[in-house]
Amino acid sequence: MAQEYCDTETRKEQIASAVLKISAGEGFSAVTLERVAREIGVVPSAVYRHYPNKSVMIDGALDLVKERILQNIEEVRAEVDDPLEFLRALLYRHVGFVVNDLGAGGTFFSIEVGSHYPEKKKKIFENMLILRKEVLRCVNAARKQKRIRDDMNADQVVNLYFGMFVPAVMQFQLHGNMKTLQKTIDDNWSVFCTLMAV
Fold it and tell me: What is the mean pLDDT of the chain?
């Protein structure tokens, strides 16, 4: 098998991406050193050099998820500074990330990893907290601007925000209809804005 040379960081990212792709499409049990090697077109020893076992590969995949979440936040920040527009843009960006990069398997991946490797739950939770913290920041900014109601606890508003896309993505995972997913997110955002209006 002819292998293209890659620097260490590039190869590690390729491997982590392959772990996410395989687990999203075929389930956690399909992730093996050999399967990952086939996915990126290298011999298993090339994977082993960077990730000696499945547990370490999962760490790499979860680190990649963290990087992508942070990247999405930074990209949205560069595009908009209005807190409500930021929330809308981040919503669509995150749904796209889960569907396109995780194959809508983000929750499935988390549940499987957590059941087989309980020590990974902390990393999964920390990744979720990054997104939650950013949403909370925007909610508080919008409340200060009197753009959304302040008679609800900020954490409740954040929970409503997450409720806009988690069930929709799970439904997409079962039915795979992108048009329905888009309409559901559009409708949910409209309802959220109506509920939050001052």
Answer: 86
